[in-house]
Amino acid sequence: MQVFDEMESEVRSYCRHFTEVFVKASNATMEDSGEKTYIDFFAGAGALNYGHNNPRIRRRLVDYLLEDGITHGLDMATKAKASFLRRFRDVVLKPRGMSYKVMFPGPTGTNAVESALKLARKATGRTGILCFTNAFHGMSLGSLAATGNAFKRGGAGLPLAHTTFMPYDGYFGEEIDTAAYAEKLLDDPGSGVDRPAAVLLETVQGEGGLNAARAGWLQRIEALCRSRGILLIVDDVQMGCGRTGTFFSFEKAGIEPDIVCLSKSIGGYGLPMALTLVKPEYDLFRPGEHNGTFRGNNLAFVAAEEALAYWEDGEFEREIAAKARLMQQSLQRMCEAYPACGGTVRGRGMIQGIAFAEPELAVRLCRAAFERGVIMETSGPRDEVAKLMPPLTIERPLLEEGLRRVEQCLKLLAEHPSDATILAGRT
Ligand code: PMP
Asked: Total domain count for the chain?
């Protein structure tokens, strides 16, 4: 690790938690330089829904490279982009009766969010964005202004403006309807809350603690937007591409966002790519008004097109549902078996985790898991949730083995509640 310590900026982050040098990876396993194998319950922060080095996608990429396919990334018209667009229309949009123009922003989640915010402001002539407690939308200034986390906001170096935070579903407990609260504030001329250009939300808050909004809440927020001429933007950067069980995370709630942000796993192979899906009436940028050098990552288009094969029939959805059930049941059982840990299950689909009353336990659980060959991260404003997010393609026996190891770690936490040395692993 010496070269990283010496040369790389202090801002490096994940490598401080997973303190090995990684060399190889295949589907849901990673191997370090000492040939130790890990089960990957992190999936590149959600960029590897189809696993590491997915063989069918790799084949397409290798062929494309050997054929001298266009690799550079401007938004030129290329064969790879045309094929991706056709497949996206036929496999994703058409079967769902969706009509969106596809915009390619720069290849990151935050760029998709920035473009969505700009469009909403352009469409409405308003500046404000209504966003939610514990939201995470990215690190560039517009997205960061809509992100709740105080530590991340502190990095901005200037005041973050034009956002109003409302309590997310469940923020005050299940009984309090925070959609009604938002509605009252928006309609009250004395509330001090101006009508915003858009409401921006995640259906499950991946970084903010695995808080999952209920379908009824999402529907009420949508209705609130519709009746007041406010755009609804769903940030599906982490929850999209099947993470919660369906291609888009909002499908089961039956809502129709005006703009959808996709990134992370849309690139199929962990390759940088992002999409901003825009209802045709809001496709308002003039040519190049939101531009960038890397708007057309052709390798990612090739990978993304092949990855969409998983969505051609219902088989993948059924597979995700079965694995999600296994995760839910196992985590539930573990929490009940070790009540001393005070854990409760959070999340939806194949992003679930254990929320601890004592945040330190989540950090220690993740460290202990790493020692035992499982890669997983914390989530939540106090790092109080240990989050499991394996590739959707993980083999079932490996998922079971990973869950067994998590359970062993939880057992150790219960038996040694304050023994940092056993559980802390390396610092
Ligand atoms: N939105 C959500 C919901 C995310 O989870 C993330 C990344 N964790 C982003 C936006 C930002 O994506 P990126 O890091 O690619 O800019």
From this structure: 2
